[in-house]
Amino acid sequence: METSVSTTALRTTPRSSPGTAALTRRTALSLPVDYPLTEWKRLGKHLYLITDSSSWWLGDWLVFGQDTYPGRYRQAMEETRLDYKTLRNYAWIARRFSVAERHPEVSFQHHAEVASLDPEERAAWLERAARGGWSRNTLRQQLRRATLAAPPEEARNKQVRLQVCTTAERESLWADAAERDGRDLAEWIIVNLDRAAERGGGHRVHPRGGAQGHEEQDGPEPSA
């Protein structure tokens, strides 16, 4: 079951008596052989909170850079050493959820599972996950079951996640083109696919499933 930890814990290092303190280094955590069980459990909660919170922090940091500075993701990769796809997904999820919509009792990864849903629907799923103590995998399984059980029309209107296998060179070219166009890579791909479909005689599909005249489609990040 997911454990809810107060954000106060983030600013309070777990206390240990002299001689039993945990030692942290850049690449290691050293614990004495007589480290108390209560302290070990408290430290685990503290580390979980830092790890989960840092995903939100990184996403918000990227969104700020995206809105404020040019060359945002290239600069971000130099600072964090994370790959473009990872950064893009952090930023996309952070942008999808306002601070008020983020559920404190489930993880960033739980939010990633429902990010493509409508605000009301994803809020309901996050609350179910929190109340049931669902892991991320359990939430994913429940979402799949709900999709399979949905009426045919509703199932057709469900948003889907597309995976695109390509080369690093091609992804870099696409990313540069998207940045020149002032768009995220996923948004750029969707807009250009819509344009190609229109040229081929198709119609634009609105995120809710109906044909609409919108210029863009808001949906989950394709994995390029």
UniProtKB/TrEMBL annotation:
UniProt biased composition (Polar residues): 1-19
Domain of life: Bacteria
Region annotation Disordered: where it falls in the sequence: 1-20, 196-224
Entry protein name: LmbU
Organism, scientific name: Kitasatospora phosalacinea
